[in-house]
Specification:
Elements lengths: L3 E10 L2 E11 L4 E5 L6 H9 L6 E6 L2 E2 L11 E4 L11 H11 L4 H14 L15 H13 L5 E5 L7 H18 L2 E6 L2 H7 L2 E6 L2 E6 L1 H6 L4 H6 L6 E4 L9 E5 L5 E2 H4 L5 E13 L3 E8 L9 E6 L11 E7 L4 E4 L5 E2 L2
Parallel strand pairs: 3-8, 3-9, 6-7, 7-8
Antiparallel strand pairs: 1-2, 1-4, 4-5, 9-10, 11-12, 12-18, 13-17, 14-15, 14-17, 15-16, 18-19
Helix pairs in contact: 2-3, 2-4, 3-4
């Protein structure tokens, strides 16, 4: 196992700054998630750690050893799992898992022992004689992880390995992956655009945009204490509501931020709490089983057409008719404040 240190890392493709001055310390045994949309630089950063892209400038150290120069991927002590899984279709599951060991000329008996051990860890021992085409998406993912595991890497690098799975399989695979990483305690860097994966898997999350790191923190820190409006609206589903109001008690051009689950009918929100109240003009109510999403606008807002969302749990059964205006409220402890011009968090 090994930690990773990244200092002033940059990767330019002509005029495009795909990674632009990233500094990052990843602890030994940590599960770190790089979260961002397409073009944020997360995959380029992962590929530089792997040795598949050479940095324009900066340093990468794995286990204290500098690897950003001419150190090839095979000499970095890493194992990478891609979105496509990259399994050999003409090889059986056993042969796919054994391939990196065979390439390293590991003795046959040791290969068999390591392959069986990895297969048992991922509960795919009964598939050893099957070919990839005979497996489900989740089973193929487990084979790819087994193949990475038998190499005894210092670091696992995972590039959106769950992206090709359907929603039900992703939930199961996410749980399998987290339990596996906790069991082996190997440093893991995981790339995704899916905030649910990031929140569910990461010990810490790195939110990236346009090649830069916007915030690093635990899932709870990133969700509850966003450093700017980009993180506030990128992390969370539905996203954080942002509202500009005229309030002499606040600095000029201050945005109020609050999560949809904190925006509730006043009678519920105000129970034993200090709240801020709004008149909420309801446009549409969406029933989703365990929740109701209520879409509308705040009458007091400087932008009355801006959509505000309330997320009501099933335990709140009060009727919220469309086309009516209701009193909704947010506990003051749940309010976050941002500069409307810079987007940066204000500590008030």
């Amino acid at each position: 196992m090994a930690g990773i240190e990244i200092r002033s890392l940059r990767k330019h493709f002509g005029d495009l700054h795909a990674v632009d001055g990233v500094d990052l310390s990843i602890d030994d045994g940590e599960f770190l998630v790089l979260l961002g949309s397409s073009g944020s630089g997360k995959t380029t950063l992962l590929r530089m750690i792997a040795g598949l892209e050479r940095p324009t400038s900066g340093e990468i150290r794995i286990g204290g050893e500098r690897v950003d120069g001419d150190v090839p991927p095979r000499a970095r002590g890493i194992a990478m799992v891609f979105q496509s899984y990259a399994l050999y279709p003409h090889r059986t599951v056993f042969q796919n898992i054994a391939f990196p060991l065979e390439a390293s000329r590991v003795p046959r008996k040791q290969i068999e022992e390591k392959v069986r051990w990895a297969a048992e860890m991922f509960s795919i021992s009964r598939y050893m004689d099957r070919y990839p085409r005979q497996l489900s998406g989740g089973e193929r993912q487990r084979v790819a992880l087994c193949r990475a595991l038998v190499r005894d890497p210092k670091v696992f690098l995972l590039d959106e390995p769950l992206a090709n799975l359907d929603a039900k399989l992703r939930n199961t695979a996410r749980d399998d992956l987290k339990r596996f990483q906790r069991r082996i305690q190997t440093t893991t860097v995981y790339v995704t655009h899916d905030q649910v994966e990031a929140m569910g898997l990461g010990d810490r999350i790195v939110v990236m945009e346009r090649g830069k790191v916007r915030q690093i923190g635990t899932p709870q820190e990133v969700y509850e204490e966003p450093v700017d409006t980009f993180v506030a609206t990128f992390v969370g589903q539905p996203p954080m509501n942002l509202l500009e109001v005229s309030d002499p008690s606040l600095p000029p051009r201050t945005l109020l931020g609050f999560r949809p689950e904190h925006f509730l009918p006043k009678g519920v929100a105000a129970a034993g709490q200090d709240v801020r109240t709004f008149r909420f003009a309801v446009r549409r109510v969406e029933y989703l089983g365990s929740d109701r999403y209520v879409y509308g606008s705040v009458v007091e807002s400087g932008a009355p057409d801006a959509t505000i969302i309330a997320k009501l749990p099933a335990t709140i059964t009060a009727a919220i008719p469309e086309g009516e205006t209701h009193e909704f409220a947010v506990p003051r402890r749940a309010l976050r404040y941002f500069d409307a011009e810079t987007g940066l968090r204000r500590r008030l």
